[in-house]
C-alpha cells in the first residue's frame, strides 16, 4: 500500500475498496498470540485490523510510561503490517471498550477542578503530555510514511457524553501538531443527536457510526447526516457489534451466528465494516470496566470473550464460519485461508504448597500511610486493587452501631481479625452491630471492582475508590487511620513463612512442572472471590457469583519446568488444591 484517501469511497493506491476490519486489542491478548489472531482475521478475507489504545495502561502513574510486553502497541502494528493488514488506530484519551474508567487514568481523579473529556486546560495539558510520548511512536507507522496505519480516531462516542466542539477541535489540533497526517474520524451512535454532538464533520473529519443490527436503517441515518452537511463520504460502521460483554451475576449474552452473518451481509452491500470484536481476549489484572444502571454500578467480568468470531482463547467459532461464507458470497475473488487452531491442555489438580493470611504479611506488600480520616485509594497514590483500613476503637463492653459512609465498591469488615460483615455497593452505608470490648482493632478491606467506562457516571464521585467519607461508630466518625494500598504489583514480597488464620483474606501458593506450555483454564468454581497470578502475571478476577467460573491462562505465560500460581482469596475459602482444565467453566443454574 502506498496511498490511502477518503473520497466518495475509500481509495487505496488509486483504487476504491471496502474496509473489511476486525477489532483485536493487543492489550487483551498475550504478544505471542498476536500473530494467530491477525492470521485468522486475514484468513477470513479481511484487509484491516483496528485497535484502541488505553491511556491508563500506558501511563499508570502520571509521568511514568510503559510500552513493553503486552503494552507494545508498536510491535503489534508492525506485526499487522507483516501480514499485509491495514491498521485503524483509536488513540483517543477515552476508549470505553468495557475497560477500567474507559481508559482514563485513575490519577486524573486526584486533581481538583479537572473536568474530564472537556476543553478544561488542566485536562488538555494531561492529554498533551501523554500524546507527546504516544503519537511520535505512531506517526512513523502512518500510510503517508510507508506504514500500515490508514486512519486515527479523534474521540470515541463523544456524542453520547457531550457536545463540546471546542474540546474536539483542540484535541484534533494536538494530534495534527504532533505529526498525525492520516485521515481522522469520529465514531458515535447512529442517531442524529449523537452524530451532531460528537462529530467534527464541518472540519472534514470522517463520521462513522456504531451499531450491530438493522444496518440499512442505521446507514440511512448516517447518510442523511452527511448529506445535511453537504458531505458524500463512504459509509462505515466503526463498531459493528457481533456480540456483547458480560457482568458478574448475570447470564452469558450470546447471538445467533447466522443472524450475525445476515446482518454483516446487509451492511456490506452499502458500506465498510469493523467487527467489534473479532477477538475479544481478556481483561487481565484489575482492568475490567463497569456498567452503570441508574445509581447502581455493575462491574464486568474478567473474560472479554464478547461472543466474538474468535473465543477468548482464540478458538474459531460458528460465527467465524458463517461470516466467512458470507464474505465468499459477496466477494467471490477474495482470498481466504484455513484458520489456525491452538490445542488446550488440562494440567490436572495441583496440591497447595504454602499459604499466609493477608493480615500477617500486610507489611511486606504495602507501606502504611496514616491520616486522621480515611483517604481514598487515589489519595494514597494508587488506583487499582484493594486498600485495607485499620484503626483502634475504644469500646465499652457493649454492642455499637457501625456504618461505612461512601465507600466503593465492596467492603469486608473485621474486628481483631474476625470477619463481621461483607457489604456490596447497594448495602454500603447501612448500619451493622459490632460488640466492642475495651480495646479493639477495626479493619476494613475495600475493593475497587472497576470504574464506570460509559456515560455520565464518569464524572461521579463514586469513581474515587476506597472510603470517601468515613466510618461511624455510635454517632461519631472514627479517626486516626492506618491505610495499606494493595495494588498487588509486588506479590514476590509475600512472606509465606508467616501465619495463616482461617476465614480471613489469604494468599495461596501452588507450584507445578510442565513439559509443554499450552493454553489452559483454571477452574474457579469452588472458590469465593479474588484474583490469580501466574509467574507474577495478573490473570484477573474470579467470583463465585458467575457467570464465568474460570480464568483463562495463555500458554506463553507458562514456562517449561517450575511454575508458580498465587491466589488471593478474599472470602475466607480455604484452598487445598487448584485444578487446570482444557475448557472454560461456567456457573450452573
Automatic annotation (TrEMBL):
The keyword Hydrolase applies. The keyword Protein biosynthesis does not apply. Keywords: Glycosidase, Hydrolase. Gene3D superfamilies: Galactose-binding domain-like, Glycosidases. It comes from the Bacteria. Pfam families: BetaGal_ABD_1, BetaGal_gal-bd, Glyco_hydro_35. The active site is at 157 (proton donor), 239 (nucleophile). InterPro entries: B-gal_1-like, BetaGal1-like_ABD1, BetaGal_gal-bd, Galactose-bd-like_sf, GH, Gly_Hdrlase_35_cat, Glyco_hydro_35_CS, Glycoside_Hdrlase_35. Residues 505-563 form the Beta-galactosidase galactose-binding domain. GO terms for biological process: carbohydrate metabolic process. GO terms for molecular function: beta-galactosidase activity. Residues 9-329 form the Glycoside hydrolase 35 catalytic domain. PROSITE patterns: GLYCOSYL_HYDROL_F35. Residues 374-487 form the Beta-galactosidase 1-like first all-beta domain. PANTHER family: BETA-GALACTOSIDASE RELATED. Belongs to the glycosyl hydrolase 35 family. This is Beta-galactosidase.
Amino acid at each position: 500500500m502506498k496511498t490511502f484517501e477518503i473520497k466518495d469511497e475509500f481509495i487505496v493506491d488509486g483504487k476504491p475498496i471496502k474496509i473489511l476490519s476486525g477489532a483485536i486489542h493487543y492489550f487483551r491478548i498475550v504478544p505471542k498470540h498476536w500473530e494467530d489472531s491477525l492470521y485468522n482475521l486475514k484468513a477470513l478475507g479481511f484487509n484491516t485490523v483496528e485497535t484502541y489504545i488505553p491511556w491508563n495502561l500506558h501511563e499508570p502513574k502520571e509521568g511514568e510510561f510503559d510500552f513493553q510486553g503486552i503494552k507494545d502497541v508498536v510491535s503489534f502494528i508492525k506485526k499487522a503490517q507483516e501480514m499485509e493488514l491495514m491498521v485503524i488506530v483509536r488513540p483517543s484519551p477515552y476508549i470505553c471498550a468495557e475497560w477500567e474508567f474507559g481508559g482514563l487514568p485513575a490519577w486524573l481523579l486526584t486533581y481538583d477542578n479537572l473536568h474530564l473529556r472537556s476543553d478544561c486546560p488542566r485536562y488538555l495539558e494531561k492529554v498533551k503530555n501523554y500524546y507527546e510520548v504516544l503519537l511520535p511512536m505512531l506517526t512513523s507507522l502512518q500510510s503517508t510514511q510507508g506504514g500500515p496505519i490508514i486512519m486515527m480516531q479523534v474521540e470515541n462516542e463523544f456524542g453520547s457524553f457531550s457536545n463540546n466542539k471546542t474540546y474536539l477541535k483542540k484535541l484534533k489540533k494536538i494530534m495534527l501538531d504532533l505529526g498525525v497526517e492520516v485521515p481522522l474520524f469520529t465514531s458515535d451512535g447512529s442517531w442524529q443527536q449523537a452524530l451532531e454532538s460528537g462529530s467534527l464533520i464541518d472540519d472534514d473529519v470522517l463520521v462513522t457510526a456504531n451499531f450491530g443490527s438493522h444496518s440499512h436503517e442505521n446507514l440511512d441515518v448516517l447518510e442523511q447526516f452527511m448529506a445535511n452537511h453537504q458531505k458524500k463520504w463512504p459509509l462505515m460502521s466503526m463498531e459493528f457489534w457481533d456480540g456483547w460483554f458480560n457482568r458478574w451475576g448475570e447470564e452469558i449474552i450470546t447471538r445467533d451466528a447466522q443472524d450475525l452473518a445476515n446482518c454483516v451481509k446487509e451492511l456490506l452491500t452499502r458500506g465498510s465494516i469493523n467487527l467489534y470484536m473479532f477477538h475479544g481476549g481478556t481483561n487481565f489484572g484489575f482492568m475490567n470496566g463497569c456498567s452503570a444502571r441508574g445509581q447502581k454500578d455493575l462491574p464486568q467480568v474478567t473474560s472479554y470473550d464478547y461472543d466474538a468470531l474468535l473465543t477468548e482463547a482464540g478458538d474459531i467459532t460458528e460465527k467465524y464460519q458463517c461470516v466467512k461464507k458470507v464474505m465468499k458470497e459477496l466477494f467471490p475473488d477474495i482470498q481466504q485461508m484455513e484458520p489456525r487452531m491452538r490445542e488446550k491442555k488440562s494440567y490436572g489438580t495441583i496440591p497447595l504448597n504454602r499459604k499466609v493470611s493477608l493480615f500477617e504479611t500486610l507489611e511486606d506488600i504495602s507501606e502504611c500511610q496514616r491520616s486522621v480520616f480515611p483517604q481514598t485509594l487515589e489519595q494514597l497514590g494508587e488506583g487499582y486493587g484493594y486498600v485495607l483500613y485499620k484503626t483502634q476503637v475504644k469500646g465499652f463492653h457493649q454492642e455499637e452501631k457501625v456504618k461505612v459512609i461512601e465507600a466503593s465498591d465492596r467492603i469486608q469488615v473485621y474486628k481483631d481479625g474476625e470477619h463481621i460483615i461483607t457489604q456490596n455497593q447497594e448495602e454500603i452505608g447501612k448500619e451493622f452491630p459490632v460488640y466492642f470490648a475495651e480495646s479493639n482493632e477495626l479493619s476494613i478491606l475495600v475493593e475497587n471492582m472497576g470504574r464506570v467506562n460509559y456515560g455520565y457516571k464518569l464524572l461521579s464521585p463514586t469513581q474515587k475508590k476506597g472510603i470517601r467519607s468515613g466510618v461511624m461508630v455510635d454517632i461519631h466518625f472514627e479517626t486516626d487511620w492506618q491505610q495499606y494500598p494493595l495494588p498487588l504489583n509486588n506479590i514476590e514480597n509475600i512472606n509465606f513463612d508467616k501465619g495463616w488464620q482461617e476465614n480471613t483474606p489469604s494468599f495461596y501458593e501452588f507450584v507445578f512442572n510442565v513439559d509443554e506450555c499450552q493454553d489452559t483454564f483454571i477452574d474457579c468454581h469452588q472458590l469465593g472471590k479474588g484474583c490469580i497470578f501466574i509467574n507474577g502475571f495478573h490473570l484477573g478476577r474470579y467470583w463465585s457469583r458467575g457467570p464465568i467460573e474460570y480464568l483463562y491462562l495463555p500458554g506463553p505465560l507458562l514456562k517449561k519446568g517450575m511454575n508458580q500460581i498465587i491466589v488471593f482469596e478474599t472470602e475466607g475459602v480455604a484452598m487445598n488444591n487448584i485444578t487446570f482444565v482444557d475448557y472454560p467453566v461456567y456457573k450452573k443454574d
